[in-house]
Amino acid sequence: MKKITLFLIVFAASVLSFSTFAQNGVVVSQTEINEESVSRIYLGQSQVLKGVNLPEDSAARKAFEESLVGKSGEQLKRHWAKLKFTGRGTPLNELKSDDEVISFLLNNPQGIGYVSDKSKVTDELNIITSF
Amino acid sequence: MKNSLLACIGASALLISLPSHAQDKIQWSGFGNIAAGMTTGSDDQLFGYDNNLDFNPESLFALQAKADLSDKLSITTQIMSRGEEDFDLGVEWAYLQYQFNDSTSVNVGKLRLPFYMYSDSLDVGYSYHWLRTPQSVYRVAFDNYTGVSVQHNAFIGNFIFNTQVVAGNMNDDIDIGGAELSKAEMNNMIGFNTSAIYNNLTMRIAYYQTNDTNIEFNEISGLLDTLRQAGAGQVASELEVSEDKGTFASVGFMYDNFNWFVGGEYTNLEVEGSYIPEQRSSYLTAGKRFDNWALHATVGQTDDKISNAERFTVPVPQLQAAVNQVTTNVVNETTYTSLGANFNIAPSAVLKFDVTHSDDKLTDESDVLVSAAVQFVF
């Protein structure tokens, strides 16, 4: 019993530790969508909206992937390699900066993205969730 | 080889002949595996390697081209060059994909038969943690088919269900491990696989069957003739793989959080009315990830069983000995133990080391293979 309790404490601690990534990041789109759909889109399981990514080395992408998608960058890279080479998914486009993501979303009502700086989000866009 | 060269030219011609607006949108990508290995004992042989350092058995390069013909329709081809086939080019995949809606798509063409959890990405070493998938389980010698595959995604509660239904035919020269390639043909093949994904846990089941399996094993063709001449035609047809029903079933799971992972698969293959034994195969794997590297271990075993041995009873003792030899020769009871270490050497490349020990319980032979590979995607 003690072992189980200890395991639960360690488990809870490791789950909670992800919340320390919390920054100023937000997920945005012109279209209203529920939070579960966000990770589905970024896991290639759903294409209700067209997702775009920030560069692999950006801190915002790391925080987004770990806290909202629930995977590490390495896990996701392997996952997408598998989807791409087995005909199950097309990799998401990568944009260079928050500004590029915002302008893409303003021009694409069916687009979804995330930015590191909440203050860049304009009135035309909905904030779906933060991370 | 001629066929694959033709297919290759056909596939390239198809891409080049696309309207120019589609050509502009061709998405190129690819992957590769540069692997080298050698066994430690002078007589040891394992997975195509022997005691001399060899780069050929598992090295490969692949290039994939995908073109969108419309929002819903796309065409994809994957051309591969394998060391074990003298780096000759061959078409591994070539298919049209139609996306019906957000949850359903259909692929038509030359596709990969998704027997195992990782069989559709078998060649993309980068997509899994092993240097090679566990050979105890990943042992079916054919992996491509021509036909249709329907993919469906469903979201139920916190579960994601990925289901794939396939139908088609397989026709290929396959390497069963003998000196010569065997001609294999499977018709009317149907089946499905479903993965249930819940956070870090993936569980998968698969079932495939065909009512018309034909494999011409050169090793037994002489014996079949002799049996028929001796009036034991019934035994000959019990041995022969001709118009037989084949079934394949598998269950698997993989749990993978950021830090560690554990997984396993169990598979069962039967070809009724043939001398192919019931093949029961399994593995368990676990590993731990550190900053830029990972350590993992895998144990696997094959546990084949001759079903209804009385089918192979011949009244002539000399012939019985010959029959027993072929039926026991294909039975495999081997355990495999592997240790692996992976190092992320670039954002899309991983360097893997592997030591695998195999122990054949029936022949009492054991082999050790040491191998290294760089696996990448681009």
Explain how this protein is built:
The complex is a heterodimer of chains A (131) and B (378). With 131 residues, chain A is α/β, with parallel strands linked by helices. Chain A has five helices and five strands; from the N terminus they run αβαβααβαββ. Chain B is globular. The relative contact order of chain B is 0.13. In chain B, a hairpin with a 2-residue loop joins strand 6 and strand 7. The longest helix of chain B is centred in the N-terminal third of the chain and has 15 residues. Chain B is mainly β. Classes of the chains: A alpha/beta (131), B mainly beta (378). At the A-B interface, helix 4 of A face strand 1, strand 2, strand 4, strand 5 and strand 6 of B.
Strand % of chain A is 15-25%
- What is the CATH architecture assignment of chain B? Beta Barrel
Please provide the ordered H/E string of secondary-structure elements of chain B. Answer: HHEEEEEEEEEHHEEEEHEEE
The number of E-state strands of chain B comes to 16
Shape of chain A: globular
> Mind describing the biggest β-sheet of chain B?
16 strands, antiparallel, barrel
Largest inter-chain interface? Answer: A-B, 27 and 39 residues
